[in-house]
Amino acid sequence: MTSKALTVPAVALGTWAWGDSGEAGDGYFGSQLSESGLREVVEKALSNGFTLWDTAVVYGMGRAETVLAQALTGHDRSEYQLSTKFTPQIAGDGDDPVADMLEQSLDRMGTDYVDLYWIHNPADVKRWTPRLIPLLKSGKIKHVGVSNHNMEEIALADRILGEAGFRVEAVQNHYSLLYRSSEHAGILDHCREHDVRFFSYMVLEQGALTGRYSPANPLPEGSSRAAVYNGILPQLQALTDRMSAIGEDRGASAADVATAWAIAKGTIPIIGVTKAGYIDGLVTARGIALAEEEIAELEALADAADVDTRGFWEHEM
Question: Where does the NADP-dependent oxidoreductase domain start and stop, copy by copy (predicted)?
Answer without folding.
Answer: 11-302
